Structure prediction request, 134 residues.
Amino acid sequence: MKRHLFLGLMLLVSVLTMAQKPIAKFNETSYDFETINEVNGKVTHVFEFTNTGNAPLILTNVQASCGCTTPMWSREPVAPKAKGSVTVTYNPKNRPGPFNKSITITNNSDENKIILHIKGEVMPAPKEKQAEAK
Prediction:
């Protein structure tokens, strides 16, 4: 009898523990900058999310696939039902042509890694602008 009671209590504790989970729900996971001009400089997009779970969501790391892309993110735990964001800046300098970059978010949810994508095409600076930049 004690054994059954103990097993039942352990099952209840494990179910309650598993029920306390953060869930990152992004409004979008990809963004197309379309055509951008190299001479206009950096472009930025904000990916917003909501923690739809019932435990605090912690983004432990956000890493871009290359040095031309810089992420900034909510460093504080995001409470249940609260919003957070990941801001991604792409630098088109000396990178004419199409681009497709990924941003990997490591967090404490069941979906431990979330991948965001940005893409577009960089129109090169006119030849006279390129000469001035040297």
Observations:
- The mean pLDDT is 88.
- Residues 12 and 123 are 59 Å apart (CA to CA).
- The beta strands are 24-26, 30-37, 43-51, 59-64, 69-73, 83-90, 97-107, 113-123.
